[in-house]
Amino acid sequence: MDYDLGESAEALRLRLRALIEEQVPDDFLGAFTDDPEDLALTQRFCKTLAAEGLLALAWPAEYGGGGGTVWDQTVVREEMWAHHEPRGAQYMGINWVGPSLMRHGTPEQRARHLPPIAAGEVIWCQGFSEPEAGSDLASMRTRAVADADGWRITGQKVWTSYATMADWCVLAAATAPEAPTAGRITLFLVPMDRPGLTVRPIPSMLGPHHLNEVFLDEVRVTPGDVLGEVGGGWKVIRDALAYERVGIARYARCDSLLARVRAELGDEWDGLPAGLRSRWVRAMIDVRVARLLAYTAVSAQERGEQDDASASAARIATTQCDQSVAELLLEAAGPDGLEGGRTAFLHGAVDDHWRYAQAATVSSGTIEVQRMLVARDALGGAR
Ligand SMILES: Cc1cc2nc3c(=O)[nH]c(=O)nc-3n(C[C@H](O)[C@H](O)[C@H](O)COP(=O)(O)OP(=O)(O)OC[C@H]3O[C@@H](n4cnc5c(N)ncnc54)[C@H](O)[C@@H]3O)c2cc1C
């Protein structure tokens, strides 16, 4: 299988690597941590990428983009994930918020929100999941009740990544609670400082990563805050999740960690059990399969097709790699691998990857749900 995306893609990779080397310390792991220095670094780095025209590389120039191809953007995301995502939480804006706005936003919303995302000035979060509605998002209980000026939203979201650092949220609420899935939910673009909105961090085994609860008490939203049509939220969510699933190129992180751990082990590599080394080879193949499936999904997006099944297939393969590679790295590194902190083995990268990988088959939709999406597509069932 030839993954060569051409000379310009290779030049882009080298340019990105040079910027990373210049601006991101070797021991950086902090894409989404609660360390203010990590946040400052990611903010700076996004501004640098934006100034170089690389942050929103595949967006149209009218929105502050670089007018590149989706394959250019694929190179960007691979290099970012391979280097512990120095765009930080802002990757979400590029990955799925921007594309969803381009597809479903009004001209005013596009003009207002896309340029700041492309300039690296704003962090968005995703307020979809609730305590009783994760896989079954359609049953969400957060209500948006109509009043004279728009709606008032009351309810609770959970597992909202980066909510403490976010400026804006794409928030889902039921505007027609008695309606079936289609017609029940509406998406709103909500500033995180709007009165009535409270964020509470959730400590977790992921380490210092941001997961949060978000409470909404009569939060006011106007008709201008609606993304897509009133009652049309499900369609926008499906699109957003498909973009999100393809955009998290953690297969590139797996690839880079497999190589880095092997290099770090040096001569000790030959002393590892043969079975472990065979699994290593298998893992490298799995990483390439995940990459291939991601490219299949990118091709569908390039053709303008909404192909949930290929996005889900890519996500399944990537998250499985995340977990099998996590176990393998840990076995190869031995007890040292479990140590966190920047003075640890590979600056704690094995520990960091292992922790995050445990949640990989849950975040952005569980692996079981992804499999159902693929099966329904293959068997032609209803969504
Ligand atoms: C690290 C991380 C970050 C996250 N970030 C965000 C975020 O930023 N914004 C946001 O909105 N959400 C976020 N989430 C939430 C995530 O989308 C949900 O956790 C996920 O969709 C699963 O929902 P749930 O937790 O309610 O589990 P449930 O839906 O209750 O699922 C529990 C189990 O039942 C299985 N299951 C459920 N329904 C079916 C079915 N019909 N058939 C077969 N099996 C089924 C699931 O596969 C799973 O194994 C994040 C989650 C994690 C772990």
Spatial order of the strands forming the largest sheet:
1-4-5-8
Low-pLDDT residue spans:
none
Mean pLDDT: 93
Net shape: globular
Bound compounds, please?
Answer: flavin-adenine dinucleotide
Instruction: Tell me the major beta sheet.
Output: 4 strands, mixed
Count of DSSP H/I helices:
12
**Rg result:** 21 Å
Structural class category: alpha+beta
- Overall strand count: 8
Strand and helix order? HHHHHEEEEHEEEEHHHHHH
Distance between the termini: 33 Å
Percent of residues in helical segments?
A: 40-55%
Strand content range: 5-15%
List keywords for this structure.
single chain; alpha+beta
Present the secondary structure layout.
Elements: H1 7-23, H2 36-51, H3 70-82, H4 91-104, H5 107-118, E1 124-127, E2 143-146, E3 151-158, E4 168-174, H6 181-184, E5 185-191, E6 197-201, E7 212-221, E8 226-227, H7 233-247, H8 250-265, H9 274-302, H10 308-333, H11 349-358, H12 367-379
Parallel strand pairs: 1-4
Antiparallel strand pairs: 2-3, 3-7, 4-5, 5-8, 6-7
Helix pairs in contact: 1-3, 3-8, 4-5, 4-7, 7-10, 8-9, 8-10, 9-10, 10-11, 10-12
Describe the structure.
The protein is of the alpha+beta class. The protein has helices at 7-23, 36-51, 70-82, 91-104, 107-118, 181-184, 233-247, 250-265, 274-302, 308-333, 349-358, 367-379; strands at residues 124-127, 143-146, 151-158, 168-174, 185-191, 197-201, 212-221, 226-227. The strands form two sheets. It has a four-stranded mixed beta sheet with strand order 1-4-5-8. The longest helix is centred in the C-terminal third of the chain and has 29 residues, at 274-302. Residues 125-129, 134-135, 159-161, 211, 359, 362-366, 368-369 line the site of flavin-adenine dinucleotide (FAD). Flavin-adenine dinucleotide binds at residues 125-129, 134-135, 159-161, 211, 359, 362-366, 368-369.
